[in-house]
Amino acid sequence: MIGVRKNPYKELEKRIGYRFSKTRRLEAALTHRSFRFENEDITVDNQRLEFLGDAILGFLIAEYLYEKLPDKDEGFLTSFRSQTSSGRILAEIAMEIELGNYMRIGRGEESSGGRKRPSNLADALEAVIAAAYDDGGLRAVQKVFKKLFVSRIDSLSGDVWASNPKGQLQEYVQRRWKSGPRYHVLQRHGPPHALVFTVRVELPDGTFGVGRGSNKRDAESHAAAEVLSRLGVLAPTFSE
C-alpha cells in the first residue's frame, strides 16, 4: 500500500487560518526566485503571486478601514492603508508565523541571510495571500486576513506617518496639487535572485527623488523619503 504524503505545511496552515486544498499553490508562494534560478526543474517562483497578493491585500485593508472608520476622510484612509501594508508590517507578521522556515530559497540567498531578510518575508506573505485566493477564492483570503491582520490593524496608534514615507508624500502632494506623485522604475540590476531596483519619484512641480531597494516597494519608499527630506518636510525614519 502506497503511503499518503505528509503535508509539510500543516502547522503553517494553522498559523494563517486556512487549509489549502492544493498545497502546491502554497509551495509556489514560498518559492523564492533564487531557488528557481538554482534548480532547472523548477519553473515557477512567487513573484507573480506577490503582485496579485499586494492588490488583494490592499483591497481587504481598504474595505476593513472603510467600515471601521466611517468618520475618516480619504486621505487618512489612504495613508493608514499604506502604513498597514508596509513592508515592515508584513515582515513582522511573517516572522511571527515563522514563514521563513518554510521558504524555498537558493544556497546563495540562504548563506546571505535571505531566510530572515524582511523584503523576502514580506514578498512571501503577499504571495501566500494570493495563493489562498487562487485556492479558495475571496472567502479563503478573508480567513487569512482576519487571522493575521485584523488585530494588528486594531492595535496601530493611528500615526499614519510611522515608517510610511510614501503615505506622507501622497498626502502632501494631494493637499498641495490635488494630484499624486509619479513613480518610475529607472533600473533593475543584479542577478535574477538578488535584484536591486532603482526608482525615481516626481512631483507636479518637477521636484524628484531617487531610491534603491531589493524590491520595488522599498525603492519607492526610499525615493519618497528623499523627496520629503529635500522639501524640508519632517519624514519618518525608514529602514529596509
Summarize the helices and strands and which ones pair or pack.
Elements: H1 10-16, H2 23-29, H3 33-38, H4 47-68, H5 74-84, H6 87-96, H7 107-111, H8 118-148, H9 150-155, H10 165-177, E1 182-189, E2 196-202, E3 208-213, H11 216-231
Antiparallel strand pairs: 1-2, 2-3
Helix pairs in contact: 2-8, 4-5, 4-8, 5-10, 6-8, 10-11
3D architecture notes:
By secondary structure, the protein is mainly alpha-helical. The chain has 2 domains: 10-155, Orthogonal Bundle (Ribonuclease iii, N-terminal Endonuclease Domain, Chain A); 165-231, Double Stranded RNA Binding Domain (2-Layer Sandwich). 56% of the residues lie in helices and 9% in strands. It has 11 helices and 3 strands; from the N terminus they run H-H-H-H-H-H-H-H-H-H-E-E-E-H. It has helices at 10-16, 23-29, 33-38, 47-68, 74-84, 87-96, 107-111, 118-148, 150-155, 165-177, 216-231; strands at 182-189, 196-202, 208-213. It has a 3-stranded antiparallel β-sheet with strand order 1-2-3. A hairpin with a 6-residue loop joins strand 1 and strand 2. The protein is globular and about 60 Å long.
